Fold Gelsolin-like domain-containing protein.
Amino acid sequence: VYLLEDGDVISIWVGSAADPGLLHAVFGAQSFEQLDATAAEASLGARGGPLSDKVGAVLRQVRGDRPVPFMQHQVMRQGEPRETRFFASLIEDRTVGLQSTYSEFLTRMGFRPQQQQQAPPQ
């Protein structure tokens, strides 16, 4: 389970290998196959219980840190069409829509990552 906030929407991606205990505690689903993303969006952070309360606290904190009036959240399951936007936001990772990572792009454009740059001569 991953959370990604892009300044507009809080996206929560759930992979098929997610722990059933986590799915039950946070989303109320017994398994990945039973996870209803729409129902999960409605009850996220409001189910009661320690883990659900922590997720709710994270959502409130993220929303509190942004100047937008109210940042919506969406829950998506692995394999849904909506996950394309989620993965396209991961600029450090190679995805279906991206031919290279951000780091590879910078290297191709002539920039070197800071950790690889040598110190200036003395």
About this structure: Strands lie at 2-5, 9-14, 72-77. The domain at 2-80 is CATH 3.40.20.10 (Severin). The chain is about 35% helix and 15% strand.
